[in-house]
Design a protein that fits this description.
The structure is a homodimer. Chain A is α/β, with parallel strands linked by helices. The first copy, chain A, has a single domain, classed as UDP-N-acetylmuramoyl-L-alanine:D-glutamate ligase (3-Layer(aba) Sandwich). Chain A is built from twelve helices and 13 strands. In chain A, helix 10 crosses helix 12. At the A-B interface, helix 8, strand 13, helix 10 and helix 12 of A face helix 8, strand 13, helix 10 and helix 12 of B.
């Protein structure tokens, strides 16, 4: 089993109430694949410019991530600059330079096409590109889709087509409300499921996550952190942990998904403890297991 | 065991995106005592005006609530008028008429003073009055304090004195941040506990509740409702269920508190399903037990 991830690789500059970091590694495919790699082998499809530092490529390789599908083309790498106030749930964008991402035409290398029943994560990127990647894969075991408000507003039809082709959609609460025009998240999730995905996972940042299917709702807590240094990448790290765990255990039952949501939440709770991937560099499997148990302690109560 | 509640009795007019209700029974002591009465006998200390309808007094009696401590004095009953937008977490006040509440001088009837080890809920009201009630009780088993932003802003010293005398404080996330000047809820709860209460329960509306003590954090989910007709009284109903359960089982262990938070959340999830106390009028113990189990189903996940 393996996890194939399409999304952005970028160079971020971010400022939070607790510090700042310039020209650090970022992007949806990066956060998701690093997180996923703790559970199973990850394969990235993305693009970088000729300015992309070798050390960042080496960093990805150090997680045994397959970067055969990362094309390097002339030009500048995608760049994002933003900041967070104490409202850490919402990133404020100062500047987005798509650069080489605007020319990205994802073509899967043969080695990716021949993956056995891969789990696919279509991380936040133009929905037309998400569809293009999906169309090149014969028998995906599971497809998870993420998006953002920009695509909801600017490419609603492409996004709906992408939604009709996937099993699980992950998005945050604001996006779920914007996509459906429905303030109530229970109703919003029903509307989203009517467009294709059998499951919807709504990320609520510091308030945890909700997962909806035909016959169940799961409410996952967030890990209450005293210090959140940088929320960048938390959502992609969540999704990477989720799909990484599912692919590792080859699970598709309700209880597998619930465990996957907790693993995703645990991974996200680590990545926000420092800028960029700093925390992930020293993260161990023991840390992850311990935090999983902490999520249990945090939310457990006895029956009456 | 018994629950003694001081707080307001009022006449509310409220409008939500789903309808409106005029001149209905409300007030912090009302919601808290009705909720608490499903678990144990409640005793109210409050005041009403000569206009207070007999039918509302009868309604309280129908829950076997002791209203000996409800003084009826010349003048108008406390009135609140407000509305909610789709942001159902936050009430917008159109008008507050304190009326007889401004003259309220709580003196406990002898029958209340002789209660054996009562559980006390100091519902939202002037902290000077909360202290005055507390000073008249010899051996409270447990004291729970609520407040609101108005007292944080206008009577901070009285509020701090009240906090120094109680075991548990319940407040919402916005109030916790305002009281401490600390946006992070983990840190805010530590600051609150430094002022007296050994436990702090932070209500987050549709995002559930967090309970903090010296050596534990508990994250309780909210019940995901498709229809929230009127959030008025949800916080007081939560606190009433919490203290009602604790007094009924005479519990003070971590697991008792966790169950109490779930019972409080369950009671709150019912009261918002209709205006005023309409839903509570037809609520049964079987409904409450069933919802408790639904909270378990909602939040349960297996260990790895």
């Amino acid at each position: 089993m393996s996890v194939l991830i399409v999304g952005s690789i970028g160079i971020d500059s971010v400022k939070t109430p607790f510090g700042e970091a310039s020209d650090v590694l970022g992007g949806s495919a990066v956060y998701a694949s690093v997180s996923s790699s703790f559970f199973n082998k990850a394969f990235i499809i993305s693009v970088v410019g000729s300015d992309f530092p070798d050390e960042y490529m080496e960093l990805l390789k150090s997680y045994e991530i397959d970067i055969t599908g990362v094309e390097k083309i002339p030009g500048q790498t995608f760049r994002w600059k933003g900041y967070y106030t104490y409202e850490l749930n919402e990133a404020k964008t100062l500047e987005t330079q798509l650069n080489v991402l605007s020319e990205f035409d994802p073509v899967l290398p043969d080695s990716y096409r021949n993956l056995q029943d891969p789990h696919i994560f279509l991380a936040n990127i133009d929905p037309d590109l998400q569809i293009k990647v999906l169309d090149q894969i014969k028998n995906p075991e599971l497809v998870v889709l993420d998006t953002m408000n920009y695509w909801i507003e600017n490419k609603p039809e492409s996004l709906k087509e992408a939604m009709s082709k996937v099993d699980v959609m992950v998005l945050n609460d604001g996006e779920a409300r914007e996509l459906t025009g429905e303030p109530n998240l229970v109703k919003a999730s029903t509307k989203i499921r009517e467009l294709g995905p059998k499951r919807v996972i709504i990320k609520k940042g510091e308030h945890g996550a909700l997962m909806f299917s035909d016959d169940s709702i799961f409410s996952a807590p967030a890990y209450p952190l005293e210090f959140i240094f940088d929320p960048t990448g938390a959502g992609d790290t969540f999704a990477g942990g989720l799909i990484g765990y599912l692919s590792d255990v080859h699970g598709n039952k309700e209880e597998d998904y619930r465990k996957a949501v907790i693993f995703g939440s645990a991974m996200a709770s680590f990545v926000v403890e420092d800028f960029s991937l700093e925390r992930m560099k020293i993260l161990t499997w023991d840390d992850i297991k311990e935090r999983y148990y902490q999520f249990k302690t945090l939310s457990h109560f006895e029956l009456i």
